[in-house]
Design goal:
The protein is α/β, with parallel strands linked by helices and about 280 residues long. It has helices at about 20-30, 55-60, 110-120, 185-195, 225-230, 255-265; strands spanning about 1-5, 40-45, 45-50, 70-75, 105-110, 130-135, 145, 150-155, 165-170, 175-180, 200-205, 240-245, 270, 275. The strands form 2 sheets. The chain has a 7-stranded mixed β-sheet. Strand 2 (about 40-45) and strand 3 form a beta hairpin. The radius of gyration is 18 Å and the shape is globular. The N and C termini lie close together (about 5 Å).
Length: about 280
């Protein structure tokens, strides 16, 4: 399984658009891996997690062929994870030619479907995204799409909907994708343990970075707790790759500083464009 982190920031990006805090100014000055766009991940070359407004920029920066993407699983309906505007460009017309996959299949909760339907309702007949389907999925109900088996698990994040984190198996390897969420629910650990899940990689929400974490995101003070519990119930072992991702500029650590702190805790630090093969 090839995992490409296309965007690794929280909702505001880093540097944030209107911010002049010390950490945003330093990120602008240093550039490189300190520049973080909104969260999105590509698995292999045909499976996206989330569709933020930065998707076009991610294509430009990485050179990926978005027409190859056949599946997109959305974690929740917040605009930094699902902004459907560009989907109206996805059909064979003056907007797109010679697409590899004729249809992009999107999966998400009921709030994602409603957001998509509201967007489509504002479009004219000639603008309808005919090459896109949207399907509602439910927590703890695995779905088979092509070579992938995807299990949505409830996230501790958005109280007005049922947000998901995802357990993704591509027929060879398994990724546990924990974005966006605070400390996972006990029932999620129980599900993983009872089903004998082994994760080859875990990607952890780390929005708070160096700040004290709490509520609906995690940070460097809480991800070790999750890492230890996953190990204790047998979901991970010494071969598992542990990565932190989804960072806010409020978290205070620039990329090199974060790499050092996270490395001491046994995590690799994601950056925009980073590729991990498991």
């Amino acid at each position: 399984m090839k995992i490409t982190y296309l965007g690794t920031a929280a909702a505001e990006g880093w540097p944030a658009m209107f911010c002049n805090c010390e950490y945003c100014k330093q990120a602008k000055a240093l550039g490189g891996k300190n520049i973080r766009t909104r969260s999105q991940t590509l698995i292999n070359d045909d499976f996206l997690i989330d569709f933020p407004a930065d998707t076009y920029n991610h294509m430009l920066k990485t050179g990926i062929d978005l027409s190859k993407v056949k599946y997109c699983f959305v974690t929740h309906s917040h605009i930094d994870h699902f902004e459907p505007t560009d989907l109206c460009m996805r059909f064979e017309s003056c907007y797109a030619h010679n697409m590899v996959e004729p249809v992009l299949n999107i999966y998400g909760n009921s709030a994602v479907l409603k957001r998509f339907e509201r967007f489509v309702g504002k479009l004219g007949e000639e603008e309808q995204p005919a090459a896109v389907t949207v399907t509602e999925i439910k927590a703890y109900e695995p779905i088979k799409v092509g070579r992938y088996t995807v299990t949505p698990l409830p996230a501790f994040h958005a109280p007005k909907e049922t947000p998901f984190v995802y357990l993704i198996n591509d027929g060879e390897k398994t990724l546990l994708y924990l974005h966006d969420t605070g400390l996972p629910f006990d029932e999620v650990y129980d599900y993983l343990e009872k089903n004998g899940v082994h994760a080859d990689m875990v990607s952890y929400d780390c929005t708070f970075v160096a700040l004290p974490s709490g509520g609906r995101h995690m940070g460097l003070d809480s991800v070790p707790t999750v890492k230890e519990r996953l190990s204790r119930i047998g979901v991970t072992d010494e071969s598992t790759v542990h990565a932190v991702n989804h960072f806010s500029h409020n978290g205070m650590l620039l990329h090199d500083e974060l790499c050092e702190k996270a490395g001491e805790l046994g995590f690799i630090t994601s950056y925009d464009g980073m590729v991990v093969e498991i």
